[in-house]
Amino acid sequence: MVNASQRQAPLYQALKNHAESNVANLHVPGHRQGWGLPKELLSLDGQALFKLDLTEIPRLDDLHIPQGVIAQAQELVARASGAEQSFFLVNGSTVGIHALLMAVGGRGEVLLPRNAHRSALGGLILSGADPVYVMPEIISGFNIAAGVLPEHIQQAIESNSSICVVLTVRPNYYGVVDDLAKQVVLVHAQGRPVLVDEAHGAHLRFHHDLPQDAMSCGADAAVQSTHKSGGALTQSSLLHLSGNHLDGEVVANALSLLQTTSPSYILMASLDLARRQLALSGTSLLERTLTLAGKTRERLVRIKGLKVLSKADLPGFDLDLTRLVINVSGLGLTGYQVGDLLFRRYNVYIEMAEANNIVAFLSIGTTPADCDALVKALEDIACRERRVHATRFPEVPFNIKKRMKPRDAWFAASQRVSLAEARGRICAETIAVYPPGIPVLCPGEEINSEVYEYLELASRHNLSCQGASDYTLKTIRVVIE
Ligand SMILES: Cc1ncc(COP(=O)(O)O)c(C=O)c1O
């Protein structure tokens, strides 16, 4: 007899319920439940879509040894992206970052910002590379990380000859971009390549009012989540190479090691179509997005208690104006509280909520109704919920002591201890409050008092935590010394 519980399909049911409800959608993927999809994909009904779910049969090429239609599609991506060679990724930008670090990690140490995404840490563990962190600048008033100053990269390379490659994150989760062109000149002068985690920048190249993209700035490699700010399906990303600092064959080998042998043709077709959509109509689609973002920004700044991140807040840096970073501290509320109210009471779903800010993600799929719902909800919250005292969260601590290589700590014998007992020990896992997925601790780093206090508070406030094997943070895995 079939167990009654087997009649349930909880994930499918939750997705169906959400899809059938009337919500404002200000988060990834950029196609926004179909609105921004290339029209060829949108016009396929279920049956026709499933007919595209094929495999490596004659005439459909092979992602791992592309010689036919996949090779042609990747060549078109390269041309549209200003790259010499481009690769389809079917496990998001994550796999592209892993592959790049696998390709160069054996050369020496990797310089990267402390607030790099956890996929960079995955690449360090897989490759065995040793990280050297550079601290990003902090934007006061918003308490968020901006980018890294070129002179800090130069100083780091000059004082450490083992650094063999620089990995940057640009734009970051808040749409902030640093001076990559200058960084590239400085790093190339030292004979090292620059790899760019451009997960949030797949759209930059296609509108002149957006900051320059990584390939235009002279980067050697860039990885883009086309599913975030392009019109591709979730998990569909791109890796671009240029110049002669990196060997395309070595990168291809690393990708072959890491990507599935059964890549989805639907995802790859969505990349092919998303490239065509951006190349042919990107400018007009993004013009519409920028106009919508501009009007929404104007309405938000009129709400008392809100501050919206603008270029004026970012001397020395630039901003992707499609991203709305809204500081809510003036309401006496935390970003977490506002994010919670937005979806519970108003059916408005945003990209991220954190201690002081919320982030609304606008893309080629965003509708005026989405933005209107966001503004009206925030107006209402500002009227009804304004509080005198905000719950205060400490900022994510950056001042961390590395005692082992991430890979060595990852493979070392470890034990689980209570958070209090973990003080002073070496962390064996990654702990990132998510989003934006900035690791507070990486394997091999000491759990010092500052980190302990932050984690204790995160645990008390039930902040969403990824990477930790005990997501409640009551216990933590440490290296047995
Ligand atoms: C800065 C950054 N890099 C990389 C990634 C990973 O991208 P993907 O989800 O496409 O694997 C993310 C995901 O949010 C990110 O924010």
Would you give an account of this structure?
The protein has 481 residues and is of the alpha/beta class. It has 3 domains: 47-277, Aspartate Aminotransferase, domain 2 (3-Layer(aba) Sandwich), CATH 3.40.640.10; 282-384, Alpha-Beta Complex (Aspartate Aminotransferase, domain 1), CATH 3.90.1150.170; 406-479, Alpha-Beta Complex (Ornithine Decarboxylase, Chain A, domain 4). Helices cover 37% and strands 17% of the residues. The protein has 16 helices and 22 strands. It has helices at residues 10-20, 39-42, 46-51, 69-81, 92-104, 118-127, 150-159, 180-189, 226-229, 248-258, 265-301, 335-346, 368-384, 406-411, 419-422, 449-460, and strands at 24-26, 85-89, 109-113, 130-134, 138-139, 144-145, 163-169, 176-177, 194-197, 221-224, 237-241, 307-308, 318-319, 323-327, 348-350, 352-353, 357-361, 414-418, 431-433, 438-441, 465-466, 475-479. The strands form 7 sheets. Strands 2-11-10-9-7-3-4 form a 7-stranded mixed β-sheet, sandwiched between helices. Strands 12-14-17-16 form a 4-stranded antiparallel β-sheet. Strand 3 (109-113), helix 6 and strand 4 form a beta-alpha-beta unit. Helix 4 runs parallel beside helix 11 (265-301), helix 7 runs parallel beside helix 8 and helix 12 packs across helix 13 (368-384). The longest helix is centred in the middle third of the chain and has 37 residues, at 265-301. The mean pLDDT is 93. It binds pyridoxal-5'-phosphate.
